[in-house]
Design brief:
single chain; about 80 residues; mainly beta; OB fold (Dihydrolipoamide Acetyltransferase, E2P); four-stranded antiparallel β-sheet; 8 strands; about 0% helix
Length: about 80
């Protein structure tokens, strides 16, 4: 099954990084399209990132409390 990276999305025009505030799933959990995965916070917005593919959360690469740049891979999903 293909591995799909989960990247920090651009949350605003001037946003270059976001705080990974809370994981809503654990490695190994099954996920569906639309499953909330992680809460991200920037200076201007709080955002709940939802899965764009169904499968299983394979690996979490960044911990809660880390500040990560836009485009950074924070997790890997094994797509169904």
């Amino acid at each position: 099954m293909p591995e799909v990276p989960i990247r920090v999305p651009k949350l605003g025009m001037d946003t270059t990084e976001a705080l990974l505030s809370k994981w809503l799933v654990k490695a190994g959990d099954p996920i569906q399209i639309g499953t909330p995965l992680v809460e991200l916070d920037s200076e201007k917005v709080s955002f709940e990132y939802q899965a764009e593919v169904a499968g299983r959360l394979l690996r979490i690469l960044c911990a809660e409390g880390e500040t990560v740049p836009v485009g950074e891979i924070v997790a890997i999903v094994e797509s169904a």
